[in-house]
Amino acid sequence: MRLGLVIDLDTCVGCHACAVACKEWNTSGTTGALTDYQPYGAKPSGVWFNRIRHYEIGEYPYNKTVNFPMSCMHCENAECVTVCPTGASYKRAEDGIVLVDQNKCMGCNYCSWACPYGARELDRASGTMKKCTLCIDRIYDMEIPEEERQPACVLTCPAHARMFGDFDDPESPVSRAVRERGGYQLMPELNYNPSNHYLPPRVHAPIPTEGMRKKAAAKVKAWVNRVVER
Amino acid sequence: MHPALAVIFLTLFSGGGFGLMALVAVVNDFHIEGGLNPLQTLVAVLISLVFVTIGMLSSTAHLANPKNAWRAFTRWRTSWLAREGIFAVLFYPFAGLYLLWVYFTQAPADSVGLVLANLAGLIGLVTIFCQGMIYAVLRTIRQWNTPLVPANFYFMGLGIGATILAAERIVFGAPATAFVALAVALLVAAAVLKGIYYFWISRPGGPTIRTATGFNRLTVRILDQGHTFGTFLTEEFGHTLPAARARNVKLLMYLVAFVIPIAALAFALGTGSAAAALIAAAAVVVGIGIERWLFFVEAQHVVNLYHGRPSC
Predict the structure, then answer these.
(1) A-chain residues near B71 (CB < 8 A)
(2) On the CB side of B43, how many CA atoms lie within 13 Å of its CA?
(3) Between the CA of residue A37 and those of A41, A124, B19, what are the distances in Å?
(4) Pairing relation of β-strands A36-37 and A45-46?
């Protein structure tokens, strides 16, 4: 198995619900807590497994806002695991999930240097590196209904912009979505072979904004404005 | 990259210490200008051990959870950081035994002594290689992902060692012409190699904000980073140095690390001035400390692309 996520950049609305749901679930999960620094202070900051950035692509009038959620890509060539001197970082053979053993990590930051996607963040309170677990304490939990055995970010997404599944199965929904929608990996030139894939925005005709015929109501309004003096 | 003093001190002092030990072995192997007498050998090996220890201790200051530091010796099959730790620790018994051997037998260049000195020197050189590879293997940082990094670490470490050794000879009043010549040659080589490195990293290359987001044929610019104040990522990787300031710091670095030590050594050799010799040794350590600071602050991690930088 090669578990991972597919992010649909066409439908993501950038609401950060996935990041909030992630933080809520994982702060009491196996690698919790996700410490906040000065949560009510002047400069709030803290540990997150999932961050959403927002970009403008293209030039006006063919430009578009793209919301860009990023978490651990659970790479096939996970350099973060290779460089770890303590053996705290490891990649599970059975499903490809990359994890950090909080009891072994010495907090040297080296794995975060090796990660191109910014997936790893040091928790200053525990002194250990923390990262997305793909909700491993949820997807294998036989106590919850089968349809809920998915990462918290996927379950919560109101736009259905996130999919979870097995990339080794060519007929899984994630494999099919990648095949049909031209899903791609980020920074393929670094050869980390990330599991997570991104679906590009669909191509839409731009909505015209200039040279439009005025509607009848607007014409009447303009005439009234002309004849009625204040 | 965040220029953490702990990591700067690690590579600076331990590199210099290992370089010094290797040169002590070479000098006593070949009896260069009569070799080092027992006292000079003791002082040099002691300085080497102190330098390596400063480096090792300051490296643990970089750990957020040092109680697990002993585990760092376990993943030597894949991790250069683990290999560096193992070889650095392996250095101590050989350097320490050589120190004791010379202290008790007063024979720095008999066969037992030379075996110990050469093994210590060799392990030190291997450790410098591992230190360089810690940075050189990272494909995420273009400025580090080059074989020039371990090469630079070698010449800088040997340059520090040679300058300290030459200064020591002058302070002891022993003949030092070959020592000064060795130090000058290594410092010039280190300066040239660093110049090649700066030329190399000044050429643009590597991933861009387009390949990072996958919109390879479009312009991409950041609208919002998604966080109001700094994160671990911005604190660790966000540091930059404006080009004009970088140029000035590099000029200062070349002056302090290479020009002043070479001039001071030449002056000390001519006049026998111990003060000038000590100035040379202090300047080379400070100067290469500035070089190491630049090495970190100029390293641009690709995660900055996601925070809106067009290229790194």
Answers:
(1) 85-88, 104, 106
(2) 12
(3) 8, 9, 42
(4) antiparallel
Dist CA B165 CA B185 (whole Å) = 14
Question: What per-residue confidence (pLDDT) applies to A61?
Answer: 81
CA–CA dist A179, A162 (Å, integer): 16
CB < 8 Å from A in window 192-221 of B: 207, 211-215, 218-221
Greatest C-alpha distance within chain B = 73
Give chain A positions within 8 Å (CB) of B306: 53, 68, 70, 117-118
pLDDT of residue A215: 82
Q: At A200, which CATH number?
A: 3.30.70.20
| Residue-range domains of chain B with CATH | 5-306 (1.20.1630.10)
* A211 CA: distance to closest CA in chain B (Å): 26
Contact A47 B232 (CB under 8 A): yes
Residue of B1, B63, B70, B71 to mutate, interface with A, max A Cβ within 10 Å: B71
How far, rounded to the nearest angstrom, does the alpha carbon of residue A4 sit from its chain's CA centroid?
Answer: 11
* CB nearest to B222's CB, from A55, A70, A110: A55
How long is chain A? 230
User: Nearest-CA residue of chain A relative to B309?
Assistant: A55
Looking at the 3D structure of chain A, how many domains does it have?
1
Give start and end residues of each alpha helix (H) in B31-147: 38-61, 80-105, 111-136
A61 preceded by a cis bond (ω within 30 of 0):
yes
Taking the Cβ of residue B176 and every Cβ of chain A, the question of whether any pair is shorter than 8 Å is answered with no
ipTM value for the complex = 0.94
Which candidate, B247, B227, B246, B223, places its Cα nearest to that of B308? B223
Mean pLDDT throughout A168-172? 97
- Mean of pLDDT values over B187-191: 98
CA distance linking residue A82 with residue A90, whole number of Å:
8
Contact yes or no for B225 and A58 at CB 8 A: no
Reported confidence tier of residue B255, pLDDT bands at 50, 70, 90: very high
Give the Cα separation of A163 and B118 in Å (integer).
59
